[in-house]
Amino acid sequence: MAEAHQAVAFQFTITPEGIDLRLSYQALSQIYLSGLRSWKKRISRMKNRVIKGVYPASPSSWLFVFIATLAAMYTRSDLSMGLIAKIREILDDTDRFSFLGQTVVSVLVFSTLLWLSLILTLRFCLKLLLSYHRWMFEQHGHISATTKLWVTLVRLMSGRKPLLYSYQTSLPCLPVPPIKDTLERYLESVRPLLSDPEFQRMTALAAQFEETLGNRLQRYLKLKALWATNYVSDWWEEYIYLRGRGPIMVNSNYYGMDFLYVTPTPVQAARAGNTITALLLYRRKVNSEQLKPSRVPGTVVPLCAAQCERMFNTTRTPGEETDVLQHWQDSEFVAVFHRGRFFRLWVYNAGRLLSPREIEYQIQRILDDPSMPRPGESRLGALTAGDRVPWYNVRKQYFSSGVNKRSLDCIEKAAFFVTLDDDEQGMKGEDPAGNLDRYAKSLLHGKCYDRWFDKSFSVVVYKNGKSGLNAEHSWADAPTVAHLWEYTLATDAFQLGYTEDGHCKGEVERCLSPPQRLSWEIPKEVQEQVSVSLSVAQALADDVDCHVFPFRDFGKGRIKKLKISPDAFIQLALQLAYYRDRKTFCLTYEASMTRLFREGRTETVRSCSNQSCAFVKAMECGEQCRRLFQLATEKHQNLYRLAMTGSGIDRHLFCLYVVSKYLGVESPFLTEVLSEPWRLSTSQTPVQQLELFDMKNHPDFISLGGGFGPVADDGYGVSYIIVGEDMINYHVSCKRSFSETDSHRFGVHIRQALLDIFSMLTAVKPEVPQEQDKKQQ
User: Fold this and answer.
1) The predicted structure's pLDDT at residue 22
2) How far is CA 218 from CA 115, 214, 656, in A?
3) Where is the active site (predicted)?
């Protein structure tokens, strides 16, 4: 109970001699320093609001405008065209100012209004510039004069040091594509997947939809686009993620892995200490907006940073019909799980962030704690892994008051969740390939009760020092989490570092209060529901088959020498691999970002096209198919660009479907489109977004990337990360319950498809004999 006594700043008792008042100066000091930190953060936020509010101008530019206007007045040049004189007349009626005071105040008012007008004009011009997307469709190395001028203007308008959220008000809104264009692109995308009669039927459905209901739904959607910041994002978050009533483990959450070859330290507590510190340093940068805004790689074009706002101190709470994302402004602790017990670990002391060595010391205290889990505590996390409605009912009845609510609040309001896992993971060992597969499954679902799947993200630190994370999907997409995790790994290994014996650097203040063990009162009814949720989650986890493998034969370096987009190359290899695996083509999902627009998230690139199918068929028949490959890659790149610039297919059709449901009207066309399964779901994980270290000088510090579960029960989920110039890491998943899919077999097909395509492109063309050439002529 030592921590409970320290939490009380003063105590008093009433005795016959009077009142006995005892002050705890240590507690009062803690309260004072904590309050001081809170006020510093408030002042910082206010300062940042001012800087963001006037961007792309600066606060100091107001002084320049004021002085320039005042100087013009004294040189008898009226820049205001009589406005200053009118303001002076109004002030003259009040009889409160002298003539000089009236002049200064008039200039002050006018210059402020002029300054605000200039800010709005600059912001409008920047938004117009950022609405220009033709640069994306120009060939590499053939930049038009218009684009060169546009780049210069964007650089001039962007200011010198923008904050993380400076561009938010200048980003354009996501446009609503013409319904005719969307339907044409949709029909083109499904043509290779349908027989002639099926395609004719779908064409008729699309035409009927356009002529009848489509234009009506489109008008409502355009009205929303005028009113809302983004016409897709709020519906996408609610209906795709938060309204799902099934388990979010495997079905929604995804994972990120540690370095492939390197484990910075084998000491579990030390790795946890540095990892927690790095994450909190990232949070500090987010809160102070000192992170540089993300941009399209190799360009000056900024990306929306809205997803960073709910990165920390965020939890998805269950509801009866829809879940809710709850975000708290700040949190000075993290929640820790170890051997069936939950702890609250304070990471600030007297307003100061604990050093990595101090956090390691506190983590070691948890690891050394011999106490046993209380009845029903050890598998409580399974409630977040099972179906959502039972979790909502249990939470409402048994976790809405008392000790259970206080302990649950500690988890949900924590900065993030940490699991200290007793298992050892990583590639090293007698079975490197199998170890990577087990590592992926551990991060994806663990034991189904040792992660808190509702948290925005949960960090896992294994016994041998390996680490990883599991992220909830509704609040942000993988590139945002990848940015966080890349910073964490690089800061851990290259900035914080370790001592020679593997411990964190720094000193330890021995008077730190020990981590607080959370208390629970778990009745029999809750324990029964925990068992039910665990059985549901365990069945789902056992059904998932994961395969992780690094492809080292070549990477983007040799692909680029062939003047081919690496992503297009990989996507066509996936098409070839799937055709060899299933002897057919399927609807393919590739995630593309729409963060060129405010509050943008993702759009679908339908990678299976007429051109890709023609190439795959020619490849399988042994025909010359270089030209077909070129056409297929050009088509894929064009589809990707259309998706990034707001002219995709699926988000538009999804929103039209939502509008139809609100209006209570049925559309056979939309119903069929939205029910089509994505049997091949793919995503590329970005890497080197921050460039915190040089990968050429540190080739062993290669990221494994991350992965996700299959979207369809009879399909595959494929995530890949292009690492450096010579490696591509793949994460493949499928369901064991479907006999025709096998992640390891598909991995073999992917590897062979990559090699076959590269061999086809690099093979020397056979020379045609001169006599034969003359006959052909």
Assistant:
1) 58
2) 39, 6, 7
3) 473 (proton acceptor)
- For residue 135, the cross-strand partners are none
Q: Is 772 exposed, middle or buried (0-12, 13-18, 19+ CB in 10 A)?
A: exposed
β-bridge partners, 546: 733
Give mean pLDDT, residues 101-115.
Answer: 81
Same domain, residue pair 337 and 190: no
Asked whether residue 246 falls in the same domain as residue 384, the answer is yes
- HSE-up of 623 (CA within 13 Å, CB side)? 11
CA-CA-CA-CA torsion sign (581, 587, 589, 592): positive
3-state secondary structure 190-245: HHHHCCHHHHHHHHHHHHHHHHHHHHHHHHHHHHHHHHCCCCCHHHHHHHHHHCCC
Percent of the chain predicted with pLDDT > 70: 92
Q: Which two tokens stand for residue 215?
A: 């234009």
pLDDT of residue 635: 97
Q: Tokens 């879940």 appear where?
A: 323
Beta bridge partners of 549: 730
**Token pair listed for 625:** 């198919």
Q: What is the pLDDT of residues 525-542, one digit of tens each?
A: 999 999 999 999 999 999
Total domain count for the chain? 4
SS3 of 615-670: the string is HHHHHHCCCCCHHHHHHHHHHHHHHHHHHHCCCCCHHHHHHHHHHHHHHCCCCHHH
CB atoms within 10 A of CB 760: 14
- Decide if 536 is inside a domain: yes
Q: What is the pLDDT of residues 455-471, one digit of tens each?
A: 999 999 999 999 999 99
> What residue numbers bound the domain in which 44 lies?
10-52
| Residue 652 is among the residues annotated as catalytic for this protein | no
Spatial CB neighbours of 191, under 8 Å, sequence gap ≥ 6: 199, 610
Q: What is the 3-state secondary structure (H, E, C) of 308-362?
A: HHHCCCEEEECCCCCCEEEECCCCCEEEEEECCEEEEEECEECCEECCHHHHHHH
Taking only the tens place, the pLDDT of each residue in 131-182 is 999 999 988 778 899 999 999 999 988 877 899 999 999 999 999 999 999 9
Task: Give the SS3 label for residue 295.
Answer: strand
The rounded distance, in Å, linking the Cα atoms of 304 and 169 is 10
Domain check: are 328 and 353 in the same one? yes
- Whether the predicted pLDDT of 408 surpasses 70: yes
Percent of the chain scored above 90 by pLDDT? 73
d(CA 38, CA 32): 10
pLDDT at position 776:
41
Q: Is residue 522 part of a domain?
A: yes
Considering Cα of 85, then 87, then 92, then 93, what sign does the dihedral take?
positive
Of residues 473, 547, 652, 731, which has the active-site annotation? 473
Q: Is the pLDDT of residue 493 over 70?
A: yes
Confidence of residue 768 (pLDDT cuts 50, 70, 90): very low
Across the chain, what does the average pLDDT equal?
90
Euclidean distance between CA atoms 109 and 116, whole angstroms: 11
What is the pLDDT confidence band of residue 6, given thresholds at 50, 70 and 90?
very low
Co-location of 308 and 321 in the same domain: yes
Going by DSSP bridges, is the β-strand pair 417-420/333-338 parallel, antiparallel, or unpaired? parallel
Name the DSSP class of 498.
B
